[in-house]
Amino acid sequence: MMHFSEFLLQPAVLHCHAMFNTSTRTLKLLASLVWYSGAIVLSFKSVIMLTEAHAINPEQIRTWLTIVVGLIFGVIKAKYLFTKVCIKNLNRIDALTKPKLWDFYRLRFFFFLLTMIVMGNFISRHAHGNYSMLVNMALIEISLATALLGSSFCFWKKR
Asked: Could you give the residue ranges of the DSSP H alpha helices within the chain?
């Protein structure tokens, strides 16, 4: 009976692993695509939520203050959190000796991202028709989108 570790050392399996080898440049590009995709999706979602909130309560100034506050929170998050996280990930990518296609983020990041997407979709669905929930979710999404965009310069900065 062959053990799993012996199976992984088979020449055919090793050859298959070689096709997933890549450069750190490719990993950085993939990381930036995920980063920008998040910013774009969150921006669109926040516009949809604010549009619905405005339709529910058109006289409310809170709807438009949400944009300003979200941008301010996003700039703060970009400066003090997201930029550091981005640089840390890029340094980790640079340190990889045999980068594989899936190494552009750590596995725990993908679990975190999946959790955030599922939770965000769940809360967004339940926010429909509720002015306060729509505005609060839009605030969170605007701040995250702004933080992602504001920290994205890390991908293009010479290091």
From this structure: 4-8, 11-18, 24-56, 62-77, 83-95, 107-127, 131-151
